[in-house]
Amino acid sequence: MEDLPEGQTGWLAGLRDLHVARALALFHGDIARSWTVDELGREVGLSRSALADHFTRLIGVAPMHYLANWRMQVAAQKLRNTGASLDQIAGAVGYESQAAFSRAFKNAFGSAPATWRRAHDPAPSPK
Fold this sequence. Notes:
Arc Repressor Mutant, subunit A, elongated, about 130 residues, 8 helices, mainly alpha
């Protein structure tokens, strides 16, 4: 991390800042929690606007955008590697309904979760 160029953005750059690193740890530690920037700021000891500024400057995206992307990455991993139902995955990554999860997933990946799962099944189906 020390060798990152000044001005570099991304996850590693965020880890150099104590507040942003704490926010990342909170997101990753409780992905399903219904986070707000206000609540996250209180947890890390910054105002909402200061956290949003630090986070966006270092990570390259706003905190809630990062969380939405992280949720979709975790959901994709669960779809690919587990037999969990769409409802279970939706709840595990912070969506209150399968419909809301499906809309967000389709927006992120271009296909519905069930369709994406079939296309990315690691085990080839017998012929």
